[in-house]
Amino acid sequence: MSQTQLEAARAGQITQAMRQVAQAEGLEAESLRRAVAAGRVAIPANPAHANLEPRGVGQGLSVKVNANLGTSPDRADMAEEKAKLDAALEAGADAVMDLSTGGDLKAIRAQVLANSTVPVGTVPIYQAAVKVTGEDRGIVDLTADEMFAVIEDQAREGVDFMTVHCGVTLSALERLRSEGRVTDIVSRGGSFLACWMVANKKENPFYEQYDRLLEILRAHDVTISLGDGLRPGCLADATDRAQITELVTLGELTQRAWDAGVQVMIEGPGHVPLDQVEANIKLQKRLCHEAPFYVLGPLVTDVAAGHDHVACAIGGALAGWAGADFLCYVTPSEHLALPGPDEVYEGVITTRIAAHAADIARGRAASIQRDREMAEARRRMDWDRMMALCLDPKTARAIRSGSMPAEEEVCTMCGKYCAVRLMRDYFRPGEK
User: Fold this and answer.
1) Which domain holds residue 403?
2) Per-position DSSP letters for 289-358, written without gaps between them
3) Are residues 300 and 395 in the same domain?
4) How far apart are CA 41 and CA 48, in angstroms?
5) Is 404 exposed, middle or buried (0-12, 13-18, 19+ CB in 10 A)?
């Protein structure tokens, strides 16, 4: 490929992807180009992803939502994965990640890429680990060449962004060991690399050979999502030395990626107490040069199993208001099981509510206007308009149709004692 989105933006060129994103966001294409050129907006758009409708992530744009999909060794069903992708897209996900570790990974990823109109991300070390364990070798037996070969294959296939845990270094692991944690490493990719480094007594190949990684990503315009392999897995581990050490390294690697023409997103925690969320966002933005920030939740309590999507939305709304750009959803199955299509749908909707709340707090005019229109539709008792404005019209319609009132104009919560109708009839007579 001749130029990445970042290189084109720096050369003063407005690409088709930039035009599409600007139109969707209600922005001038030139202002978006400047944000991409500065690295404050990323547009993950691999040219090999043929049916992609580009999304922008970053400063000045609406807060985006990602849905994690994928199989496990215990549950690998191609049909279910297609149903999960369909559920994520129907619910309004802005991106999906295929995190499969069971079944035919290449076929599953091909299915996702063929059917996803939104950017697709992966964690390539997963496939490398599955390959070697399938050959009766251990994860610690991986070679650097095998790790990089997977990245190159996935880039050729059309993956738009990749999570690579380049900041899990020997020095960061030493800080982790010396400080002590309750949950050590909860990142699957981070744990793979940490075990490899300890067993082989060598530095992380993705850190040591970072220029090699960037060369592959630049050739296919794959956005690097610098993974938070040392993210806290419980509130007690939040904002500790290991997490911050990795973040400092990611800031340095961000600049090197930009210098190589590669777009960057930074991944963040994790489990974080409510009072530390804003500080985490501001610290990332400062250390990583205002690069787009992609957070998992953050979950603001450890005891919401079965309802972790709610804990995620609470933290996500605050994180988005504080400056996070991209929220990775959590489903009700988090910490318990692989989610199915229904959990995927619920997770996306719940996280979209958090993102929308953050957009309102950030002053995004279109989001504020949508809420104003909903309020006016409620005052008019215009049910068709209310349903159209919902973030989840399908669920709203199902609830209403399942409990229809005696008088169609109202609902069964208040029935004939509807406050809105009483005020219309007596306080605003004649208004309908």
Assistant:
1) 366-426
2) TT--EEEETTBS-S--TT-HHHHHHHHHHHHHHHT--EEE---TTTTTS---HHHHHHHHHHHHHHHHHH
3) no
4) 21
5) exposed
The last residue of one of the domains, among 316, 347, 363, is: 363
> pTM for the whole thing?
0.96
Which residues neighbour 177 within 8 Å (Cβ) at sequence distance 6 or greater?
Answer: none
CB-side neighbour CA atoms (13 Å) of 268: 37
Q: With cut-offs at 50, 70 and 90, classify the pLDDT of residue 431.
A: low
Residue 32 falls inside a structural domain? no
Average pLDDT in the 293-321 region? 97
Q: Is residue 288 situated within a structural domain?
A: yes
In whole angstroms, what is the distance from residue 195 CA to residue 372 CA?
A: 52
For the stretch 86-109, pLDDT in tens is 999 999 999 999 999 999 999 999
pLDDT-derived band at 426 (thresholds 50, 70, 90) equals confident
**Are the CB atoms for 190 and 123 separated by under 8 Å?**
no
| C-alpha atoms less than 13 angstroms from C-alpha of 94 in its C-beta half-sphere | 26
Looking at the structure, tell me whether residues 381 and 318 fall in a common domain: no
The reply to whether 107 and 63 lie within a common domain is: yes
CA dist 245 and 168 (Å) reads 9
**Rounded Cα gap, residues 41 and 34, in angstroms:** 9
- Mean pLDDT along residues 44-52: 97
How many structural domains comprise the chain? 2
**pLDDT at residue 50, as a whole number:** 96
Across the range 405-420, mean pLDDT stands at 93
Tokens of 385: 């308009």
Average pLDDT (52-74) is 98
**SS3 category, 380:** helix
Q: Which of 50, 48, 106 is nearest to 78 (CA)?
A: 106
Q: In which residue are the tokens 């930074």 written?
A: 266
